[in-house]
Amino acid sequence: MKALRFINKQLELQEIDLKPTPENEALIRVVIAGICATDMEIIKGYMDFEGVIGHEFVGIVEECQTNPDLIGKRVVGEINAACGKCVWCMKGLGRHCPDRTTLGIFGRDGAFTEYVHLPVENLHIVPENITNRNAVFVEPLAAAYEILEQINIRTDVPVLLIGDGKLAQLIIRVLARRGCQIHVAGVSERKIERMNGLYSRVYIREFPMPDIYTIVIEASGSPVGWDAAVSTVEPRGTIILKSTFADAFSFNPAPLVIKEVTVIGSRCGTFGKALEALSGGMRVSDLIDAEFTFDDWQEAFKKAHDPETLKVILRMEGI
Amino acid sequence: MKALRFINKQLELQEIDLKPTPENEALIRVVIAGICATDMEIIKGYMDFEGVIGHEFVGIVEECQTNPDLIGKRVVGEINAACGKCVWCMKGLGRHCPDRTTLGIFGRDGAFTEYVHLPVENLHIVPENITNRNAVFVEPLAAAYEILEQINIRTDVPVLLIGDGKLAQLIIRVLARRGCQIHVAGVSERKIERMNGLYSRVYIREFPMPDIYTIVIEASGSPVGWDAAVSTVEPRGTIILKSTFADAFSFNPAPLVIKEVTVIGSRCGTFGKALEALSGGMRVSDLIDAEFTFDDWQEAFKKAHDPETLKVILRMEGI
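^ inputs. structure came back:
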C-alpha cells in the first residue's frame, strides 16, 4: 500500500507492505486525514521520528478479532497506544504510559497511508451526525479540551489566548462554548478573522500586550509568543503551554520565579468531550483551507507550509 | 556612612550621605548581614540594579516616627516595600505589588551599609532566643518556607531537591522539619555533607537521575539543574523553580508539554514561619562558612565566590 514516510530526513511516498494486524488491535481503512503542526515539526526533526507520519484521521474498521462488532464502523483513534498495566494506565492516563507508542509520532506508523493499526481501546465510533470533515478534527479538538480538564477558567475575567493557528482556532471555539471571555493575540488579520468574532479584544502583532492576565494560553508555537506569555501573565498567574517546539530557544526563567508564575504543560486530551461537542452542534470544518487527494501530497504539504493556511486535508480515495 | 554600592558595573565601598528617614519608615542600624546568591547575580548584571546591595540583615531600630516602641528593638526586614493600596497589597501579596521597591535589588538601597531604611510594616522583631547568626537567615529561610505555602508536599513519597548551595541547604531543613522524604542531587560532596544526613538518598554529579519524582525542587541555579528537573519529573508532576538566573540559556519547552508538567515559580516568603521555626529550635548558623568585618568586604566577596563556600557574613561593627 502507499504510505507517506519520513525517512533519512526526507518525506517520501513509498509502497510498503501491510503488516498483519496485531492481537487486540484493529485494521482501519483511512478515509480522510488532517495535516497538523506536529507533522510539520516532525519533518523538521521533532522526536527523531522515522516512519509513516500522520495522526489525525477518520477511517472504517476492516479487521478486528477481539471486537468484530466494530467492523464497518466509522472511527477516530486516540493516538497514544499504552501498555494498559502500569500506574499511568491504571489512572486512565495511558497517554503518559512510559511504554506507549504514539501514532505517527513515536514508535508507531501513522495515518498518512491506506490502512492503519490501532489498539481497539483507542477507537471511538463517530456519531452519524458528525461529518468526516468535522470528525477529522477530533484529535486536535480533544487537545484543546484538555485545557479545561487541567484548569478551571473563570468566565468573569478575560483569558488571553496567544496564537491564531490551527490549535488556537480550536481552543477559542472550546473556550467560547464554555462561556469564557477571550482576548486574542495573533499575527495574521486573515487568521484572526477566521475566529468569527469569538473574542472580545484582539491584539495583532502587538507584543507584549499592554494588559496583564490571570491566565494566558500560549498556542502560537513561537518563542515570541512564549516571551509574550511570560511578560503578560500577572504575578501568581498561570500560563497554559500548548505548543510543542522542535528546537530549543534562549530563555531566562527569572520572570517565572519573580512573578511566581505557574506554567502548565498541556498536550493530548481524551476524545469524549470533543465528540460530544461536535455531536452537540459545534462546527470546525470551516477551518479547512484546502483538500487534496493522497496522490497530491506534495501540493498538500506545500499548502500546509504557507503560514496563512489553516487546516489541510488529505483524502485517501482514489489510491 | 560607608556603603557597598554596585555602580557602573563595579562594586565599590563608598562614603555616602545618610538620607532623611521617609515617613512611615524606620531607620535601622545594621548589625550583621548575609551575602546571598542574588547579590552575586546582581554583580553579574541581574535586574540592572545600581545602588547599595544587600538584603539579608539583622539590625537595631534607631528612628521610627510612626511606631516609637520599635526604637531599640532588634529586627529583620521583609525586602519588598509595597504601595499598600493595590489589589496585590490587599491580598497580602505586597511582594508582588507592581509599584514595589526591593531592598538592594530593585529601586531601593540595600543593607550592606551602616544604616538602612524600611517601611515599618516590613519589620519583624526578632525573638530573644534567636541569635544574630541565625536571625540573619530569616529572609532566605522564608523563601524556603514559601514552597510549603504554594504546594502541599506529601510525606509518604520522596521529593527530589536539586542543588546543594545556600538556598538548597535551607530548603532541606524546612522539608525535613515538615517530615518529608528527601532525595538530593548535588555536585559537591562537602556541601552535601553539610546537609547533616537529612536526605534518604543522594546523587552526586549524576544527571539525569535514574528515578522519577512527582515533585522536583530546582534550587541549583544552573541550566544543568533545570534540565535535570525537566527530565526527572514524572508526567503530570511539578517542578518548583526556586533559582533566579542572571542570564538566559537555551531551553526547549517541549518536554514540559509532552509530560504535562506544572512549573511553579517560587520567590520570597513571609517571615512568620521562618521566625517561628528558628524560635522553635531550628538552627541554621552552622551554614556560616566565614565572617568578615565590613572593612574586609573584598575578602568576603572573594570567599563568597568560591563555589565550595556556603554562607558568608558581614559584621558591621568597627566601621
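The mean pLDDT of chain A is 94. The CA atoms of residues 211 and 232 of chain A lie 7 Å apart.
thumbs up if we can close this ticket
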